[in-house]
Every structure is written in structure tokens, then in C-alpha cells.
Amino acid sequence: MYSTTEENYLKTIYKLQIQLGTFINTNAIADGVNTKAASVTDMMKKLSEKKLLSYEKYKGVKLTEKGKMVAIETLRKHRLWETFLHNQLGFTWDAVHDIAEQLEHIQSNELVEKLDAFLGFPTHDPHGDPIPGRNGVIKESDFILLSLLKKGEKGVISGVVNHSSLFLQHLEKNKLTLGKSITITEVSSFDLSVKALLDGKEKIQLSNEVVKNILIKKLI
Amino acid sequence: MYSTTEENYLKTIYKLQIQLGTFINTNAIADGVNTKAASVTDMMKKLSEKKLLSYEKYKGVKLTEKGKMVAIETLRKHRLWETFLHNQLGFTWDAVHDIAEQLEHIQSNELVEKLDAFLGFPTHDPHGDPIPGRNGVIKESDFILLSLLKKGEKGVISGVVNHSSLFLQHLEKNKLTLGKSITITEVSSFDLSVKALLDGKEKIQLSNEVVKNILIKKLI
DNA sequence: AAATATTTTTAGACTACTCTAAAAATAGTA
DNA sequence: TACTATTTTTAGAGTAGTCTAAAAATATTT
Questions:
Q1: Residue of B103, B104, B109 for testing the chain A interface, max A β-carbons within 10 Å
Q2: pTM
């Protein structure tokens, strides 16, 4: 239906829209799809022709409902594949993204649905990002930043803000994986680093850089 | 490393080489990759440049060792994915091919190896075709045509010769799937159709068109 | 508001792959 | 062997996507 390239543009614009809320400018898109501004302009004309987004010269773009659906469907496929790669094949947290980038463009509705069922209809991918449903609905999650927890409070690791390999590898090396519980025992007022209890037993220390990039589900 | 298109050309030429044994001519390739002869000529020059095959004008082509390895690796991926689609996701026999055509081009050695392990290092795909090993070695199978069985002889369905959807759907509808046993009870000398026992209990009748396209492992 | 900096668009060209139509080579036949 | 048919190759052009360099529009600074 749509080419790999088109899907990548739409997905990138969708993410930028969520992040920035407004009309998306050419350079941001060029950055996102790893190309030059001139190429973006060309593609914007093409996607606009196809009614996937509205484009006005020098004013940026905005996805149409149709474009948004394509973007979400691509995101759904990406996150289902990431889940498969991590949960079934045992890929590490940081390795799944690049392969899922390729797999998300495989065309077959039946495949997506069967994969979803095979995985047990997961609601979140290995990074804690919500997996859109078949209808395109994305469930809002009530995850908050670990850095918001106060001394004595407790939460379960449920996602990350920073998706870089470097950060994910760091987390994996320190056993800070999805599902682990964290109880804050002390917050330094100097550098905002925290001391905490991992899974109620192991004492750990986390820099602010780390805690402000981890999402947790707060336990009362 | 190599583009989807290049891999498809190499895979097609490899299959033709096995089938025909000799130098492969332009039209046969054009047929196999669904394009025109002129396009094939262009591509042969390109693949020849890259030392993936040897090409002499008007004389046809032959894969080099390098080209053969790429073809076999692609075939390996194709058949592993077919196995995944059938065994894990529950796709029917005839539906797996088209999706595997796409999946075989995903680039990641780690993915192939992990998938192989996940599937339990299968030796044959859902059509009974052998899956090349990591080293590129393809185990010869001792399957023979069902049509070669004589009255009273018995075998286990292990593969197909004809891979068309129509034939595969026909087999599936008649429960003639991999692993089922067949005992020949009668062979008509008129139309070469056979009467047989499916799994030792159900009486069935099969046309010659069917029996000459089924591969079985003969039981003594 | 003018000058400067930045962003975006246009123009023209390149790569990978494709095609049609015509020319060249090979194969088959009388 | 000469004629015809078939196959293959060349030539020229198209599509999707990309790029650089220059022009045009917008934003920022003074």
C-alpha cells in the first residue's frame, strides 16, 4: 500500500506531533528520517497529494486522519515486533529497535493479527511504550518519572524516556529491567542522585540522569 | 549488504541452476523474477561486476561460489520464516510463501540464528523443503514421489513438488498434511489413480496428478 | 526597519531499478 | 546454406528517492 519510505516519514512526523503538538517543520523531519531538507520538501508534496498530510509551503505539515492511521499502524507493528524479538527470541533491550525498524514494513494484516495473538495481546513493548490496538487506539499509561518519587515511595520499572542503546545497555547491565521494583531510601539534595532498594533487597545508587529517564508505575 | 532485488535475482538463478543444471538463460530469469529480459541483462552486468555470477553475452549465467552462498543464505531465511509462520503463528500451508518472500530480506545474522534456535533447528520447512544450515550445507533428503509406491507399500507425507496455492489448499482441505501416513491399497492401471489408507484408518482416493506431486518418506 | 542569519524551496542531477522498441546474435527450418 | 523465428542486448526513457547548490522566504538581531 505505502512504501517503506513513506511509512517512515509518516511515523516520524507522528512522533514529532506528539512531542511538539504543533505543525512540524522541514528540518525536524529531515533529522528524523535521516535525510536532507530538500528531500523532505519533495516528499511532503507527494504525501500531501495522497492526502496523508496537509502541507503549506514554509508553514510545516500536519498529518490528516488518514496519515495518522498509517503512522499508528506502523508503530503498532514496530512495537509488536520489538516484543517478539525481546520476549520470544531473547534479544536484549537495546538490540530490538534496529531489527524492528525493518520488520515494521512487512505487509500483511493477517501477520500482524496473528503475531499479536501469539504474543498474548501485549499492551506495552519492551521499552514500556504502549502498543496501539487494532483499532488504532493507544491506551494512555499512568507511568511517571522515577525522579518524581520521594523518599520511602515505591514503584515498578515500566518504561524508559531515553531510548538510546547506550542508556538501555546501562540499565540492562545494572539489572534495571522492566518489572523490577524500586524503593527510594534517600534523595541527595546536592546532585539529586538517589539511593534505593532494588526488588526490596539490593542496595543501589542511581544518578539523576538515570532516574529522570526511567518510567515507573507507582505503588501506593 | 545486498539489496532485496539482488537477493531475489540470486535466489531465482540458484533455483534454476538446481533444476536445470546448466547455464541459465535470460528469459528464464526474467520469468522467475517477474520482469523483462532487458532488465535482466542490466542486472546480470551488475551482479557480474560484483563477482556474484559469471556472465557472457548471449551465453547465460552461472553463480560464483560467492553468489551461491548469498542465494543459499536467502533460501535459509525464507524457509526458517515459513516454518515460523506455519508452526508458531498457525498460517496455512499455502499462505506462508508470500509473507516469507518479504521476511527473507530482513538483514540481521543474529536474528536468523536466534530464530533458528527458537524453532528448534528445524531441518525442513512446511513444504518439506530442506532448510540450509548456517554453513550453507543443504542436507539431501531421501524423499520419493508418492506415485512410486506400489500396492501395499507405506510412507509418511514429507513434502510437495508443486508449490502452487491451489495444490496446497487442495491438500490441506483433504487433510493431506505433513506427517500423515499413507498406505497404498490399490493402483488403477487405467488412470494411475490410487486408493489408499490415510493414517491407517480413513479410506481415500487420489488422482495421479496428486500422487505425483507429493513427496513421502518410505516406510519399510 | 534594515541587515543578517536561518530555514525552506527550487532546479538540476544522480542511483537503482524498471520499461519499450529496435538492433544484433543465435537457433531452427526449408 | 539461406531464410525465418526466437532470444538477447542496446538505446533511450521513466519512477522513486536522494543529493548539492542556489534562490526565495521567514526569523532574528541590531
A1: B103
A2: 0.93
